Task: structure prediction
Amino acid sequence: MLIRNGLHYIKEAFNSVYRNGWMSFASIGVVAVTLFILGSFILLNINVEYIAEDIKQQVQIVAFVDESLAPDEVDSLRVSLIRLEKVEEVRFVSREDALERLKEELGPLVEGFEGRERNPLRDSFEIRAIIPEDIPALAKEVAELPGIARVDYGRGVVEQLFSITGVVRWIGIVFMIGLALTAMFLIANTIKLTVNARAKEIMIMKYVGATEWFVRWPFLIEGVLLGFFGALLPTVLLILVYSEAVAWTSLNLHFLPLVSPGMVIMELAQLLLVLGTVIGGIGSLVSMRRFLKV
Amino acid sequence: MIEFQRVSMAYPNGVTALKNINLAVEQGEFVFLVGESGAGKSTLIRLLCRELLPTEGSIKVHGRDIARLKRREVPFFRRNIGVVFQDFRLLENRTVYENVAFAMQVVGATGREMRRRVPDALQLVGLAAKAKMKPLELSGGEQQRVCLARAIVNQPSLIIADEPTGNLDPRTSMGIMDALKTINIRGTTVIMASHDKEIVDAMRQRVLVLDGGKVVRDERRGVYCQHAN
Result:
């Protein structure tokens, strides 16, 4: 009985997808378009976050060392810096190295500053935080250490960068939720049309004594099928388009770091397929609820 | 078999459709429900199908109060009832055979049972030769016969027919009545709402007259109008 009914439900679901040809096509189309937009937005959001993260990782504190410090005192200062809780990495830049860098950047302008006496620069430490957002607080702690003359981390600019990436993240989340809800609404409505077209059938089923689940199962399976096939299309398309886009960017815009396809496509595919299937199933159950009240 | 005890029914909009109905129908009876539009015939039928619940009183079918059925028990209760509608309600994209088999499929019958009972039901209503046709290729009377075959194929103990001849011409109507009579003779109870004076008078069966939501007349071998007696 169970197997016979199961086969019947699946057969009915496929029959119905076939019988309601255009309606099925429309449902699949709506699912495909909405999930494509959602998927594109998710990829965009992931990459904006990735780029923001990349920029954040480049933010560091430069702590200038008091000139009066002896080399062994500088060394113990380094140790106390490393011991700070929020510190990820500490790199010592001697005043000679700093001058070298400056020469590389500015060229002949810095001629004539060679030699210990003439070099106007200080020894410094470049410090990275474990969490980039901790940089302003960490800078304060570093500045309080004895032997640190001055601390620089791009005050103001860094705070602004962090608040912008925070806003971008929230906008992204709000948009994604909005798009997912829109997708669910559109899909539920389209499936409602297929259910409406079969209201008579449902009514007859109820009159001859069909149980509620006997009526529901084929529709549920149909919704799941429409949702799944609707999700398959944008998933494949997004994978292809994104892989191409990443390949093109790495050749032509190599300063723009994009998330490699291997890192995201499996998860994106899973998300879209599950979302399509679940939305299809729920949409179909919700749409047929009122027809069951006979 | 069917017992209405002090049944009243008021719709949520305040309209009282039935008032204090008491009646009993025995197994194997043929009962006409007659009355003007709005007299309460359809409400009574919908109560019997347990599409509606009475606001007062109890309705017992085979000794069981159907208002107390749990939601999941309702489908199994309905399997004892075959319903025939005025507007047929056939699935147009399926054949005559499939329409009748559909009722069996829904209750979980096996393919073998269907192959045995569907032709029997079609034979009984005189449509054995048209099993492969689609409903829209049939006349109105034939479509109503398909509906009848669908109602009897699960061998219910009760057939409820709501104006089954309402859309048919007199000759075709008599054909449907013959089929109903045959089903009734085999032991199935038939309750039929009708406007059709000729049919009611010709059949000489029990007649229940509803007026303003009350049973105003109940005659064992009655006719449509009292003054016609």
Observations:
- Chain B is about 30% helix and 25% strand.
- The helical segments of chain B are 41-48, 74-78, 96-106, 111-124, 140-152, 170-185, 197-203.
- Chain B has a mean pLDDT of 90.
